[in-house]
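pinned: reference chain
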Amino acid sequence: MNEPSPRFWEIFFDVYEHLPRQGPGSKSCAAQALALCSELPTQPEILDLGCGVGCQTLYLSELTAGSITAIDNHAPSIDRLQETIVKLELTSRIKAVVADMAAPNQVPESFDLIWSEGALYSIGLRSALKVCHELLRPAGYIAFTDAIWRKENPPPAVKASFDLDYPTMGWLKDDLAAIKDCGFELIGHFTLPDEAWWQDFYTPMEVRISVLRTKYAKDTEALAVLDQIAEEPEMHRRSSDYYAYEFFIARRT
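pinned: its structure tokens
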């Protein structure tokens, strides 16, 4: 399978870096997940892994009184988050860091809560859970979202799309087994509602693509990439019953 070209990534980031968030989620879902972390300290130390431009990082700053370290390996996203932190006068509570999620260079057993929305899969779920286990204090919480299959025999276009980005994507039972095997006790889980895909993700994505079609009106290569990216929300309209994002909340045993 061919790797995406450098031009693809240029256009991809021209879309994604300008979105409120880089994957499904919402403030209400974050609040629901946090409510299951019932024994967090009053001012928890929180690690947001794969934070992107930090939409959920800011939710965490509103929903908790904790200190947050937000990590992503894409420097422009961290730069944008840092600008937001300064603008909102949150520099005393949020630290944005460029780092590899597989080796985040944080002190072991130093966090009360590790948060990650749609990012752990990028280094393999079980590998990511092992990293999180080492960084959590005893009885610390992990809250993360992950894509899972919901129905057998998805349309070929759906299967091909996930095979490209997440070839090891499994079912609910697979994630639950990984949580248990990696030293966590499941506290709860729930499926993200459809509005969590659209409000801050696919709807602004389609608006951004429309803007960029004008910007790149005479650039056939860029327009082809935009067409490719635009297939994702269209696929979700047609076939979202075949897959879901699940929010998992667990505790280090």
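why pinned: The radius of gyration is 18 Å. The chain has one domain: 25-36+43-195+239-252.
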